[in-house]
Structures are given as C-alpha cells and as structure tokens.
Amino acid sequence: MHSENLKPFRYIPLSYNHADSHASALRLILTLNPHWEGRDNKIEFVRFTDGITNTLLKIVNRKPGLTEEQIDHEAVLMRAYGNHTEILIDRERETSSHALLASHGLAPPLLARFNNGLLYRFIRGRPASHEDLVTPFVWRGVARRLAQWHAVLPIKGAAAPTEPVEDVPLMQQVNMDTADCRMLKQEDISVITPKQPGPSMWSVLQRWILALPTTTEEQRKRRLGLQKELEQVVSELDDGKGLGEGGLVFSHCDLLCANVIVLPESADSDEATVNFIDYEYATPSPAAFDIVNHFAEWGGYDCDYNMLPTRSVRREFLSEYVRSYSHHKGIPESSHAEIVDRLCEDVDRFRGIPGLYWGVWSLIQAQISQIDFDYASYAEVRLGEYYAWRRELDGSRAQANEEMPLRERRWAQEA
User: What domains sit in the chain, N to C, each tagged with a CATH number?
Assistant: First the structure.
C-alpha cells in the first residue's frame, strides 16, 4: 500500500455554482493552482457531463509550448455533486473509496475536496462504448482489472455509512410535502441484517428502499413489496461464501461503459489496458454481483439483451478474471478451474439482482432528477429483469406456459 497517498488532502472552503459555472470553477482551480494565474496561462474547461447527478469538468492549462500529453499530465478533473444526490450516494464513502483506490494506484490522486465536490488528476484514455464492452479486446482488460480490485483492496477500507439506516421517506428528505411522511414509521418494515456488518451493497439497497416515497397507499404497498424481495434475496444469496472476506470484496458496483477507460498504450496490444473511474457506488459486495452488474451493462442504456454474454463468453471472461485474481492472491493454477466453476454458478445465481438494485435506484431518480430521461419507465424495465429471473427460479413462468423473456433466453444460450 502506498501510504503517502493516505495523508489528509486539502479542503477548499468554496462551492461550485451550476448557475455560474465558469467563474466558480475558475475560483476553485486558481485556489488549488495559484501558479495558473497570469498572462502566460490559458485555462480551458471541457465539460464531460452535466446534470442533476453531477457535473464533471476537465480543467486544462494550455500554456504555449506544451504538448497535448504535457497538458493532460497537469490537467485536473472537477466533480461537482448534483442536488439531492446524497439520498442515493454516501459522499463520505465515495471520498474514502477514492483515497483507498489511489493508495493502491487504482485511481487518480485526489488533489482536494470542496463544499460540493472533488478535484483529482485526469486519466488519459477514452471511455468505452457498450459496443466496446462486448469485444474480447476490452472485456479481457476489464476482467483483469476487476479481479485486481477484488483481490488487493481491503473491504475494511470502506467508510461506514455516515448515518444509521432510518425510515426517512424520500419526500421528507427533499423537503417536499412532509406532513403524511412524518407519521410513517417502520412498523411494516423489518430492516435486513446482512451477514457481514458494515457497509455493503445489501445495506445500500436497504437505504434506497427506505428512501422510497410513501405518500400514497400504492407507493407504500410498492415499498413494502420491494422490501420483501430484498429480505428474500438476502436470505438466499448473502451466505458468507464466495471470494473475499466473508463473501465480500471491494467492488465498483457501477461498471457501465463510460466508467471503463481504455488507456492509449492499448493500441499496440492484443488486449486493452483499462482503468475504472467514478467511485460513487463503490462498496463491499459479493464478487458475483459486481461481475454480473457489469454484464448487464453490455446491453447499454437501451437494455439491448441481445448483447448480453452467453454462457461460453461468461466462462471465458471468468477464466480471465480468475487468472488475474489468483496472480494477485498467490493462488496456485491447480485451483483455477474449481474457482471458475463456482464463480459461474454464483454469477448465474446473482443475474437478477442488478435489476432490483437499479430498479429501486430509478424509482428514486424519477422523483429527484432533472435529467431529460424517463427514469420511471427505466425502473419498470430493470425491475422487470428481476421479476423475470424470480419467475424462472420458482418455475411460475413455465407453469403458466408463457414464453421465456429475451434476457433469460440470451442468458441460457451456450454460445
């Protein structure tokens, strides 16, 4: 572990203002880099994303005589948080996760935090597309890097939630109509107790369900139904087995295509070298969840299930993953086949959980986000994945003599 990266980093008592983007970002970068002030400097802002979830700016200084590589070497990324996103994301945990990753050389160094965001070093490379994810050139790189995360990062490095889990409905949290919400207690909710104490994707999902709106009878019934599903999957899947400490590894939990950066030096290789960015959802989880959550992203934002990996492709990915995991853990090659077999089974068992996870997330986004995206419909698509998996598991789909949904058919394909 690189202990020098764990030293406290700078706090800048300023805020980024979405309504006054240029001026507020300029104040932040000149506070961080006062030597960028003056006539010989040419500061530019490149906007990567802009929305209620967050704003991501690349800040560069195009001083005369510098090459693009030299400019990028000194470039700074500024991530400013969107309104109300603390409902979904524990920002203290995100900062702690970033620092932990940087200490292992798996994230760019953190430079400073400010009132509503972070400043950190830029990584050269290009974001993958969902078409990239399905190519062996890229997915082999993802498998190797993800295995490294799971093998070397301690789950004890994950920050504990900043507040205890409480039954505070979403509408109350965002200061909307609170009269009815204040009266709601958790008499109908039995909060889960995961096998491993501390933060995990199970506790995150529990917090999200407790944050769902409950102003109408329909909303209350839905929240209770989702809570029952969570209780069932925890009883079935949170068994303390699998890779890592007590069945948990330090996971990214949001490996969509844009969070996979293909590094420039990959061009001359048969296999991509990749890094992962955006650690908002990083937390301990079963390795199988992190892997199958990534597989779900092969379909892209449109959920094109024809793009999902078949059984043979999943096994190839997991074989690459196990080679890398074993290398970092010092596990002998003679054990590889057994670990791959077990992971294949675990990934198969977890295939419906990303639908539940992001379905609940989308129900919250439908209430708080100002992005031009139909989160309510997306929630039904993702929850539909979960319920389709559940119906395969309990046999109810076959008993009803209904056709197997496309996602389940694709998942069952051999090649």
Answer: 3-121 (3.30.200), 125-415 (3.90.1200.10)
Q: Give the C-alpha separation, 305 to 311, whole Å.
A: 14
Residue 376 · residue 362 · CB < 8 Å: yes
Closest CA to 120 of 107, 128, 111, 129: 111
pLDDT digits 0-9 by tens, 181-224 = 333 444 468 899 999 989 999 999 999 999 999 999 999 999 99
* pLDDT reported for residue 4: 39
Rounded to 5°, the CA angle 304-51-379 comes to: 40
Question: What pTM value is reported for the model?
Answer: 0.90
Query: 35 vs 59, 63, 381, CA distance in Å?
Result: 14, 12, 50
d(CA 144, CA 322): 8
Measured between alpha carbons, how far is 291 from 346 in angstroms, rounded to an integer?
Answer: 10
Q: pLDDT by residue (tens digit) across 46-81?
A: 988 644 467 889 999 999 999 999 999 999 999 998
Average confidence (pLDDT) over 315-325: 98
CB-based contact 158:284 (threshold 8 Å)? yes
Nearest to 227 by CA among 189, 256, 184: 189
Give the strand pairing for 10-12 and 274-276.
unpaired
Residue type, 337: A
Q: How far is CA 159 from CA 80, 267, 283, 289, in A?
A: 20, 37, 9, 20
Give residue for tokens 């082999």: 140
pLDDT digits (tens, 9 = 90+) for 271-308: 899 999 999 999 999 999 999 999 999 999 899 999 99
Position 158 scores a pLDDT of 53
CA terminus-to-terminus distance, the chain: 41
What residues pair up with 61 in beta bridges, in sequence order?
Answer: 43
The answer to whether the beta carbons of residues 148 and 101 sit under 8 Å apart is no
